[in-house]
Write a structure and sequence with these properties.
Multidrug-efflux Transporter Regulator, Chain: A, Domain 2; 2 domains; DNA-binding; mainly alpha; two-stranded antiparallel sheet; about 140 residues; homodimer
Chain lengths: ~140, ~140
DNA sequence: CTTGCACCTCTAGCCACTAGAGGATGTAGG
DNA sequence: CCTACATCCTCTAGTGGCTAGAGGTGCAAG
């Protein structure tokens, strides 16, 4: 029965200590037992949950989506259709984001290519920013 | 001498009214003259500045970067090397973001493809989220 | 002259944390 | 046993870039 402190949990899960406390405060993570001196003491299951949360956050899921996914995970008899829907919605967001960033990249490249390091009043960067009409792509 | 109200400025620039007031409060936009009844009255140059800010925000520049760009714009004799540097830094960010989103997209697609709408305890989505080791791409 | 919209200021809220103050606890060495 | 020091505790406030709402004033049309 080794006790897992919050620092240890942080090291093992890759979630920062204040962030773990934050997740507890918003109810993503259950309140753990406390030591005699009032210090949090975690179980291995908490570490798995933290790893799950961290991974989902890295994949860009919002806290509310993660909350839904965790609820599903807690009841393995449920159909996973909701999990599937959440992931699909996220995929759509990501695809949209990639499209607009790609257009943006082209825009920035045009801007930078046009810049010949002259004075500001003939700077392509400033000029393009000042006038959306000069954009070659219509996206944003 | 037609007076440009904040609502008119908003319509013409595409920046929302409270956002215009916000930009004034953080010093991105100069305090405009006021009418007798204490209402803001803008000049055409303010509209251009607002359009510039809006466009830059759409291109994902942070307010601090925009502040720097605006300072440059205000002094057209300066070299535009700084503007160029700001745009290049932004380009690097955007490229990085596209790379990681693309990897993420692949991850989500794998997750979703594996999901056969069974019960949660055999759900690929939940499973992959619970175990980073199952990720096929190393990025996040 | 009244209706109703647009304007004003101010405060608080959003998300997901992060930073810092000020104090208690736990542990390793002497 | 004492001390030093890391780690822990709670609490409040701050981040960025707005957005929402309360409670009040200005202004133009009918």
């Amino acid at each position: 029965m080794k006790k897992i402190t919050i620092g240890e949990a942080s090291r093992q899960s890759g979630v920062k200590v204040p962030t773990i406390r934050y997740y507890e405060s918003i109810g993503l993570l259950a309140e753990p037992n406390r030591s005699e001196g009032n210090q949090r003491s975690y179980e291995p299951s908490d570490l798995r949950r933290l790893a799950f949360i961290r991974h989902a956050r890295e994949l860009g899921f919002e806290v509310d989506a993660i909350r839904a996914l965790l609820t599903l995970q807690d009841d393995p008899n449920q159909s996973c259709a909701s999990a599937d829907a959440i992931a699909k919605a996220r995929l759509v967001e990501v695809e949209q984001r990639i499209r607009s960033l790609t257009a943006l990249k082209a825009e920035l490249e045009t801007m930078i290519k046009g810049c010949v390091h002259g004075r500001v009043d003939e700077c392509r960067v400033i000029e393009v920013l000042a006038d959306h009409g000069q954009c070659t792509h219509s996206h944003h």
